[in-house]
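Section 5: illustrative case.
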């Protein structure tokens, strides 16, 4: 880059000083893009080199479109402020700044946030502050000199950047804009915008915009629900502590407790006072609908993704209305297409705490991150209802457990990160082993949850249920990819643990559930079941089906091809649930 010849520099060395400094600044700002990010945007085409190219193009555009150099430098100074954060997230989690991270930083109490946010002080930020100050000093100098980039090289750069960007965008011409007119939340996965969102420094501004967009959709969907009164009455006999653990992608037939040949649940198998439900089916195999079904009797979005005509807040709101302090502790994300419909319900809680600075795309934090915040809340006085939202067995399975749980081998830990693992049947053994390891880790976390609750000695119940199952190249079904199509994706593990004091108080209700534990059940009856178990009565016309009911209708589930009767579909072909 050459400074305008009209600007008289004091000496010939000075003429090259500013462009060289600008070049150095740009290089430092492009550098984080050299750290590989793992499939953060669900864009398989998002190649490593392409991300770096976009970063270079971005800065070339900033300086060539706005010929005044101080404006480009000021932009550099602002973007450098989250440079250390960007480098940390990329090195530690192979992720850029995402809507999940922005949402977490906005929603989570600083004391509960991940170790990075807690530990970060001015020392870590010092390089960014120095860098930013340097850019500002130079910008001020160039502003006073009225330095502009007027050399014809500016036009060459503009032309080159325009050509490169056009070529890259044409290469992605088949990519959608992520819009779906029937879906209230924008699905940006696979769009050009999602690709740009993996590039520093575009990632933070795009994430902030998306978090606000999703928040406004949540606000609109929930407009009619504020102040909703469940008219609840709490029975005298009730537990003081209620913990609902929401599992992720855990299929029932891989649980030792439910008959699996491998010892995947050794700790729970040795735990007393468990009621184990052996035939529970989820209505949806998509997390964004399955999780709301577990906490709301009438979710805002149906399992088919439609806005429901008659919706109500989650049972967290009902529990709050009868005096329980409600907490939502999550190891999943807060923002984005997949997370927003869940965050919508977490918002009913007195507090929503997000502990994972990444999303299901990355290794992120293990589910044990939930234990310390749980223990702190168990120590507080008064009635409490705590929801733990885990990452359980979400793909990549080997990202879900520490190395000490890598028991069944070879697992995916030996397979380098690459596109196409989900479709690679040659890795069936590695995938299956990693999946079983993740179940064994869930067994450990869930056992620690129960121990922590038991240790407190309250009248307490802990319920665990997975949102849906998972197909992992089964011997029977010969799936072509890790998918959710067979009965294994619909049948979920579910259990209830109770403390001695709880059994004294609500033993009759626990016995009733225990008596029916092998009967066919649906997961979307969990909210009403929990209200019945705790002893929260609501007007009879507001009731929905419960596991306490003697009779149940057909188990309607929503498959990729539409609504179907689960049991009839299994009778036809257990490998593909469809109408
Ligand atoms: Zn899920």
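Designed sequence:
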């Amino acid at each position: 880059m050459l400074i305008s010849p009209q600007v008289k520099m004091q000496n010939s060395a000075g003429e090259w000083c500013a462009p060289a400094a600008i070049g150095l600044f740009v290089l430092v700002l492009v550098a984080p893009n050299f750290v590989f990010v793992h499939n953060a945007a669900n864009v398989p085409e998002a190649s490593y080199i392409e991300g770096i190219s976009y970063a270079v193009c971005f800065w070339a555009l900033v300086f060539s479109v706005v010929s005044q150099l101080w404006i480009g430098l000021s932009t550099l100074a602002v973007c450098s402020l989250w440079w250390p954060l960007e480098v940390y997230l990329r090195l530690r989690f192979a992720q850029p700044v995402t809507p999940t991270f922005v949402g977490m930083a906005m929603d989570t109490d600083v004391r509960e946030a991940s170790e990075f946010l807690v530990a970060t002080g001015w020392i870590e930020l010092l390089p960014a502050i120095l860098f930013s100050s340097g850019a500002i000093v130079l910008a001020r100098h160039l502003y006073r000199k009225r330095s502009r980039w007027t050399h014809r090289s500016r036009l060459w750069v503009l032309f080159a950047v325009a050509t490169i960007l056009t070529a890259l965008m044409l290469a992605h011409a088949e990519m959608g804009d992520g819009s779906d007119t029937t879906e209230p939340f924008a699905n940006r996965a696979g769009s050009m915008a999602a690709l740009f969102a993996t590039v520093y420094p575009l990632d933070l501004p795009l994430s902030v915009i998306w978090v606000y967009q999703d928040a406004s959709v949540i606000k609109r969907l929930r407009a009619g629900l504020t102040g909703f009164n469940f008219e609840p009455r709490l029975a005298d006999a009730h537990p003081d502590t209620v913990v609902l653990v929401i599992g992720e992608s855990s299929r029932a037939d891989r649980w030792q407790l439910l008959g699996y040949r491998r010892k995947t649940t050794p700790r729970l198998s040795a735990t007393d006072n468990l009621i184990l439900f052996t035939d529970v089916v989820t209505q949806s195999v998509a997390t964004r609908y399955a999780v709301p079904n577990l906490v709301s009797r009438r979710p805002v979005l149906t399992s088919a993704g439609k806005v429901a005509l008659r919706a109500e807040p989650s049972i967290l709101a009902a529990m709050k209305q009868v005096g329980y302090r409600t907490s939502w502790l999550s190891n999943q994300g807060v923002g984005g297409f997949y997370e927003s419909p869940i965050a919508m319900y977490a918002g009913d809680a007195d507090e929503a705490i997000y502990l994972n600075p990444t999303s299901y795309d990355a290794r992120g934090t293990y589910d044990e991150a939930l234990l310390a915040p749980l223990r702190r809340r168990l120590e507080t006085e008064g009635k409490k209802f705590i929801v733990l939202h885990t990452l359980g067995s979400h793909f990549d399975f080997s990202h879900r457990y520490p190395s000490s749980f890598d028991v069944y081998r070879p697992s995916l830990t030996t397979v380098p990160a690459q596109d196409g693992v989900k479709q690679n049947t040659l890795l069936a053994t590695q995938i299956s082993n990693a999946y079983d390891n993740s179940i064994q880790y869930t067994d450990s976390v869930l056992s620690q949850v129960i121990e922590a609750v038991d240790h407190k000695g309250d009248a307490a119940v802990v319920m665990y249920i997975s949102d849906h199952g998972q197909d992992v190249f089964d011997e029977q079904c010969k799936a072509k990819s890790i998918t959710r199509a067979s009965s294994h994706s619909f049948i979920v593990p579910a259990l209830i643990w109770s403390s001695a004091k709880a059994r004294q108080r609500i033993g009759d209700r626990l016995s009733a559930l225990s008596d029916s534990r092998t009967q066919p059940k649906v997961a979307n009856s969990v909210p009403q079941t929990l209200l019945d178990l705790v002893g929260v009565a609501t007007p009879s016309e507001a009731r929905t089906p419960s596991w306490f009911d003697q009779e149940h209708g057909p188990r309607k589930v929503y498959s990729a091809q539409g609504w179907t009767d689960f049991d009839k579909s299994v009778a036809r072909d257990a490998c593909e649930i469809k109408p």
